[in-house]
Design goal:
single chain, 273 residues, alpha+beta, nine-stranded mixed sheet, binds Dihydroxyacetone, binds zinc ion
Amino acid sequence: MNCVLELKSVAKFVDTCNQSWLKGWNERNGGNMSYRMKAEEVAEIKHLLADKSDWRPIGITVENLANEYFTVTGSGKFYMNVKNEPENNICIVKIDEKGENYKIVWGLNEGGVPTSEFPTHLLNHSIKKEKTDGKHRVIMHAHPANIIALTFLLPLEDKVFTREIWEMITECPIVFPAGIGVVPWMVCGSSDIAVATGEKIKQFDAVIWSHHGIFCSGEDFDVAFGLMDTIEKAAEILIKVMSCGGKKQFITSEQILALSEPYNVNIDKTMLE
Ligand code: 2HA
Ligand code: ZN
């Protein structure tokens, strides 16, 4: 391999940023994404990596991410530009052997640092790595309009959002049977939002940031993107229904739970209580 961009997961990272941009979820420098690379992927490009920064403190300790490599979007960079200039807008970073510091080893050629939400991403990667036996590798945050709109309309409660969103598209409870978490408005990039999201990500794969956006975790790019896309589409339907005077008929909780058996998923019935 002669170029980092030839690595399949890097190409997919770039394409997923572009798909997210095309969806309208990433105005200006909005949103950020990170991918925990596989050891065999790092081995394939190791000869193309070089120290491009000193070790810098992450701000938190993520012991189970020691020595891992992440592909990550750059702070202040625009998703709009990732496809045409990936090497200037994204980077690969290495975590040190204690899980306390990181350094840039590829990318951000015109300068820059990883996303302002990097500590939030790493804390949540750490939790999801443990909870899923290492299966989850992708975290993405974006600003889909209908999800944000709903946070001005519905009570900011996990169960309310889950029930309403599940009802809008029958696939929803099958795609995210655990439901959705909601955190109140907080300063983005702060340790408060990192910790609050981390608490919710133990239970859910998607956490709505009130009046801001959504944060999704998944085993690969398609699963994480598909989760965000499904929730945003359901939110759009709900906004349309509310705009047209509200629901005139409903799906019952029993009907939602009836999907568990045929689709072999464990829809969390406590979210419907
Ligand atoms: O990357 O979306 O939450 C900019 C943001 C911060
Ligand atoms: Zn944001």
